[in-house]
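agent> fetching stored inputs for the NAP docking request
agent> found them:
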Amino acid sequence: MKKETSFALITGASQGLGRAMAFELAKRKTNLLLVALPNENLHQLAAQLADFQILVHCFETDLSLRENVLSLSQTINQNYQVSILINNAGRGGSKRFEEVELDYLDGILQLNIVATTLLTHLLLPNLRQQNQAWILNVSSMAAFSPIGFKTVYPASKAFIRHWSLGLREELKGSGVSVCVVYPGPMKTNQDVTQRIENQGFKGNIGLLTPEDVAVIALRQMFQNRGTIVLGFTNKMSRFLMALLPNWFKIPLISRAVEKKSIEPAHCLALSPSHLLTFFSPAFNPPTPPQTRSCPECRHCCGCWRRRYTCRPARTSGRSRSPCQR
Ligand SMILES: NC(=O)c1ccc[n+]([C@@H]2O[C@H](COP(=O)([O-])OP(=O)(O)OC[C@H]3O[C@@H](n4cnc5c(N)ncnc54)[C@H](OP(=O)(O)O)[C@@H]3O)[C@@H](O)[C@H]2O)c1
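agent> prediction call returned; pasting tokens
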């Protein structure tokens, strides 16, 4: 295939933010290389995008496997010129660290960190051949604070943040501009949507549609903004997170995650409402860790004011509930 035109490569393009980015770039008449897991309607999406009279090619592959990242990069470098790379594919979840399977941890680390870093490294020579090229890395508002019960997801997004800004500095003047976007909550896949809806009013604070995020993020990317935080509420939340000390914000946010979503909720996060609650009269200070929950039965003490502690209890020689208030 002749390398005549340049393309934008989007990972995780089949749904959510990646799909919205694909439509936004198609409106700008940018040719697309779409990457997602196999059998996820990527070709159907390509057919819809054909209406924009652009070239669209699909690659169905699991990026959490190193060999797939290597072979994808090789195919791309041999056949296409890439002027825009959007590292969007990412996954997360809310679970107790000690209870998760190794595959769960490995999946997040491989996709969010390893695949993104390796793909960028391997495609960089291609990007550098263009007069002007852009890399847009998708982080998350969760990158601005460590969060218990999510642990690896915010840490992986903080990696994306630091790595992107370092790379941006390194590539200054090279014609390749590196930007990083920090979305707040967006109703994308079923799990995230469910979790946001479960939060009611709070879940809607700072909420943007993937389409809005795509429009703003791409506009600011083309303006060469290194750091893209979207909307007033998310900006405010970022400011608060920089201001508040770790001893205060980490328990506060972690407790909110523990309460709301110790199960499937995919990404994010961190609704800014968790921090804004601080200013509400109904604000509850975080539970002191030593009385928060029993390590045996994980019974939550409920109220931070009452000093319940769980104790082993025995009744007439027979083991009863492992703990007792
Ligand atoms: N949604 C939010 O509230 C939110 C907030 C902050 C940041 N973010 C970040 O925004 C990005 C997009 O999130 P989203 O909510 O739009 O996600 P999503 O709807 O779950 O879509 C994720 C995309 O990544 C692809 N993907 C997942 N695992 C993959 C793998 N192993 N190999 C290749 N592709 C894979 C999926 O492909 P398939 O469809 O083929 O599975 C899908 O296209 C992520 O990096 C996420 O962390 C999201």
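agent> quick read of the result: The longest helix spans residues 102-128.
agent> awaiting further instructions
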